[in-house]
Amino acid sequence: MTTPLVTEAQLRRHIWSELERATQDRHHEWRTPVLATLGGKGCLKRLGWQLRVHADMSVQTTGPEVQAAWAQVSQSAAAGDYLSASAPGDALPMAPGMPGAQTTVHHLAVLTAQVQQLDWLELGHGGHRRAVFGANTWEWRVP
């Protein structure tokens, strides 16, 4: 049995460690952000955690960060997913599966999140715990 995390520093460090791990581990429960989760999905099962992230998002479609990301993606098998004469969501001029016009213009974007608040919930057999973190604040909350 692991020792429960009880201090702000321990909780912050462990939450951010899991978020960083999710960027590398394709099977991590927090790998893909979602708007809402129903059922057991979204809970970090091995720890019994759920995390809500409140963030301001920006979308970049041009600039050095997008160019750097495209330099990596363009060398992968996924590059074709971003190359199309039309943008994602545009109407198809022909039936799906028919060859369409290809282009060298990509539709890759970089999303940047500025985290404003983390709402952490631990589900445990001996009781649940919840804490909310801001940039310079934190407090225990009723689960």
What's the SSE blueprint?
Elements: H1 8-24, E1 49-60, H2 64-73, E2 110-122, E3 129-133, E4 138-141
Antiparallel strand pairs: 1-2, 2-3, 3-4
Question: Brief overview, please?
Answer:
The chain has 143 residues and is an alpha+beta fold. The protein has helices spanning 8-24, 64-73; strands spanning 49-60, 110-122, 129-133, 138-141.
Textual characterization of the structure:
The chain is of the alpha+beta class. The chain folds into 2 domains: 1-31 and 39-60 and 112-143, Roll (Pnp Oxidase, Chain A); 62-87 and 100-108, no CATH class. It has helices spanning 8-24, 64-73, and strands at 49-60, 110-122, 129-133, 138-141. The protein has a 4-stranded antiparallel sheet. Strand 2 (110-122) and strand 3 (129-133) form a beta hairpin. The longest helix has 17 residues, at 8-24. The chain starts with 7 loop residues before the first helix and ends with a strand.
CATH architecture of the largest domain: Roll
Number of separate domains: 2
Terminus-to-terminus distance: 22 Å
CATH topology of the largest domain: Pnp Oxidase, Chain A
Physical arrangement of strands within the biggest beta sheet: 1-2-3-4
Order of helices and strands: HEHEEE
Query: CATH H-level name of the largest domain... which superfamily?
Result: Electron Transport, Fmn-binding Protein, Chain A
Q: Quick one: how many beta strands?
A: 4
Tell me the strand percentage band.
15-25%
